[in-house]
Amino acid sequence: MEVKDINKIAVIGAGVIGNSWTANFIWKEYPVNLWLFTAEEENIAKQEIQEHLEGLAINGVFGKEKIPEMMKLINYTSSLETAVKDAQLIQESIIENLEIKQKLLADIDKFANPDAIFASSTSYLLISDIAKFSQYSKRCIGAHPYNPPHLIPLVEITIPEDDKGSIETAELAAEFYKTINKVPVILKKDVPGFIANQIQTAVSTICGELLANGVCTAEDIDKAMSFGPGLRWATMGPYLIYQLGGGKGGIKGLTLHIRGESEDLMSRKELETYANFIQGEVDKEMANRPPEFGNDNESLRKF
Ligand SMILES: NC(=O)c1ccc[n+]([C@@H]2O[C@H](COP(=O)([O-])OP(=O)(O)OC[C@H]3O[C@@H](n4cnc5c(N)ncnc54)[C@H](O)[C@@H]3O)[C@@H](O)[C@H]2O)c1
């Protein structure tokens, strides 16, 4: 299958994430079969999706008059078979429970085309576990959006381990997500919490410690984050920020300078090896960036 063959999407689950994914897909003109766990969810789903689209229209992303046509692209159904049988991408977004997701996948295996990509929105479960009993595990990926998916571009992708997954499926899904303006990242390992939630958990842990130790108030923490690193991190990740922070010496210079002062951390030789490694990683990252986003020290600084 190629990206151009994806022309119908099944969104499974009409909760917070399912409705936001649906808004994202129909905004990009993809017809969606939205599977409802209970028929009563239909009205709430309609209302939430409509509100998501109105939010985009108010901010000038498209004209408000386009919304009725977009809403017509949704087929609401309580039948799993109807939802998945003609879909090439199945974006599972049901309750975060391993057994329930495994059972759902077993049912999807009965009805869906074996080529259809099964993409789980799970936040913390492993796709290796969700797909453990699937006869089509190679079509399965973790595809974790950041809430709300119709606004936040990131999608973190994982595949089942032990040769049960397929990197081609991950790459195909990543190419597809790019066509709807998402920014996909394919992880090399299947880990709980992917990248962003692990970082977020680490930040939450430190915030909790600062509060518990009476160092500052919750308001102080929020201010420190929003008016400090949060402003930088909105435009660049920590490694590019270090690259900038190191001036002409880049992240290598910064690493040798700062970490070189803590001799107990690693030997000078280990430090130099690490500094060269991390500079190489950042150089590769910069080379992948479009010039207007900054792909060398000077253009990065201007950006
Ligand atoms: N909320 C977030 O911030 C966030 C962010 C990224 C990913 N996710 C992931 O997205 C998925 C959905 O999360 P959500 O926040 O939309 O949850 P939600 O509670 O809003 O929606 C869950 C949906 O699952 C349905 N459901 C409940 N029991 C079910 C069952 N037994 N079988 C099938 N469906 C059932 C509910 O009716 C509901 O439509 C989860 O895997 C979650 O980890 C959530």
TrEMBL record:
Where's it mainly located?
Answer: cytoplasm
Q: Which GO terms describe its molecular function?
A: L-gulonate 3-dehydrogenase activity; NAD+ binding
Q: What is its EC number?
A: 1.1.1.45
One Gene Ontology term from the biological process aspect of the record? fatty acid metabolic process
Q: Which GO terms describe its cellular component?
A: cytoplasm
Family stated for the protein in its record: Belongs to the 3-hydroxyacyl-CoA dehydrogenase family.
Q: Which positions fall inside the 3-hydroxyacyl-CoA dehydrogenase NAD binding domain? A: 8-190
Q: Which organism is it from?
A: marine sediment metagenome
Report the protein name in the record. Answer: L-gulonate 3-dehydrogenase
Q: Which Pfam families does UniProt cross-reference here?
A: 3HCDH, 3HCDH_N
